[in-house]
Specification:
DUF2516 domain-containing protein, DUF2516, transmembrane helix, transmembrane, membrane, mainly alpha
Length: 97
Amino acid sequence: MPTFAYYIVTAINWAAIPVGVFAFVHALLQRADAFTAIDRMTKPAWLGITGGGAVALALFSFANFTMIFWIAGLVAVLVYIVDVRPRLIEVQRGNRW
């Protein structure tokens, strides 16, 4: 019979997948020149990073020996969401005087 910890780990695994997909879709919908305007990597690079992260989150698990790949995927998409996404939004919004 599964324990409470099993359900928590399963919830974490399933909750991370939409985060990865969101990061990939957001990067996909942004203008390519916005990435260079914020002095970050190019759009294809971020599509590869977020896409690879989303795939890693979907294929690997937080609870077994593949955890390192799962964590790497989560870190990749969270870097995009926390660091790159706000700057992209800011540069595309322009000055709000």
